[in-house]
Amino acid sequence: MTDVEEAIIRAHRDEWARVVATLTRRFGDLDIAEEAAAEAFATAVERWQSDGVPPGPGAWLTTTANRKAIDRIRRENKRDDKQKEARTVYDDDPPEPLGVIDDDRLRLIFTCCHPALALETRVALTLRMVGGLTVPEIARAFLVAESAMGQRITRAKAKIKAARIPYRVPSAEDLPARVSGVLAALFLVFNEGYLATGPDTDPLRHDLTAEAIRLTRLIRALLPDDGEVAGLLALMLLTEARRTARVSATGELVALDEQDRGAWDQDLIAEGHRLVRERLAAAAAGVAPGRYQILAAINAVHTSARDIRDTDWSQILALYDQLVRVDPSPIVALNRAIAVAELDGPEVALATVDRLEDKLAGYHPYHVTRADLLRRLGRGAESRSAYDKAIELAGNTAETAYLTRRRDQLV
């Protein structure tokens, strides 16, 4: 890969959301913003090869995208007020802040997560516009066809335009009702960075995890007393703390029980534990914890153990029992089974996992869990078959390498 190609990839990772957000604020149209941003990056591919990478790639891309947007508006012969909007690109006066926190990307995520849109649509649109994921990547994350996902995103942008959904952070009284969809979207943006679904991307995307954490911190500043905001931030921090230990020098995923815990980020862990303790105090005072708070507490138990053998699996199982009451999903049941295996043995856990097949047949962690349990029971042929299915569905290069090694070690 050439230096220019690396620069473009890095610019897309670092600048996509900022460029889209800036254009959305100026033109009030997600379609125009996305297309102009994409055209700017395509122009960069051509121009930077001959002219060199500019000293400020983000500024270059934003300026180029603005010009592309204006060209499109003129070509489509938009009405006069759109032409007037386009001229604001050249205004020297800074735009007025549109919310409590003046952050274009935060406003963009609240626009994408408007309650007029279905929850899955909000998340998909956020992954595209804020996370910069491709439609195929988002389709894989949702286990749907690429064409269906493309149509879903197109309809969402059209609905935002037709309904004149405002590009702003909601008022203080509207925030609590709006925040749950935003948290769900940020959680999936973070998860895509934690373990990317695409075979042609970095297995871990720090740009996505960092942006999800940054935006969650901003939401916490808006809602400092919201337990689920604090819980999600703690969950992200405790997960991100393990990032540098999660992929080996050879590019293979490193499972939790094999990670070098000395490489974990202790500052992030300390901050995450502090947030969890705050929420535990609230629970003791009678405030029932939500999904993200319980997941954060589970991660706090994992990150408290200096060695995998020190893990308090009974506490983890108790937390999963609590989580099942809040979120009785098959994925939670699958994760709970992993704790059951540590306490009651793999045979008991496998019976639970097998009952989830109809709901999770296309979900590769289901087959990973099943392969591991079968392996522990000495059922090599069945374990190999489960690994094969997991490898087929995984996509992530680091995870595929790990699963392939595990499968090939079977006798």
From TrEMBL:
Give me the ranges of the annotated region Disordered. 75-96
Q: Which UniProt keywords apply?
A: Sigma factor, Transcription, Transcription regulation
Where does the DUF6596 domain lie?
A: 178-278
Q: Which parts of the chain span the membrane according to its record?
A: none
Q: Which residues form the RNA polymerase sigma factor 70 region 4 type domain?
A: 109-160
Query: Can you tell me which residues the record assigns to a coiled coil?
Result: none
Locate the RNA polymerase sigma-70 region domain: which residues?
A: 18-78
Q: Which InterPro entries match?
A: DUF6596, RNA_pol_sigma70_r2, RNA_pol_sigma70_r4_t2, RNA_pol_sigma_r2, RNA_pol_sigma_r3/r4-like, TPR-like_helical_dom_sf, WH-like_DNA-bd_sf
A Pfam family (short name) is: Sigma70_r4_2
**SUPFAM superfamilies registered for this protein in UniProt:** Sigma2 domain of RNA polymerase sigma factors (SSF88946), Sigma3 and sigma4 domains of RNA polymerase sigma factors (SSF88659), TPR-like (SSF48452)
**This protein's record includes keyword Amino-acid biosynthesis:** no
Gene3D superfamilies reported in the protein's UniProt record: 1.10.1740.10, Tetratricopeptide repeat domain (1.25.40.10), Winged helix-like DNA-binding domain superfamily/Winged helix DNA-binding domain (1.10.10.10)
Which segments show compositional bias classed as Basic and acidic residues? Answer: 75-90
Q: Which domain of life is it from?
A: Bacteria
Family designation? Belongs to the sigma-70 factor family. ECF subfamily.
What name has this protein been given in UniProt? RNA polymerase subunit sigma-24
**What organism does the record attribute this protein to?**
Amycolatopsis oliviviridis
Gene (UniProt): rpoE
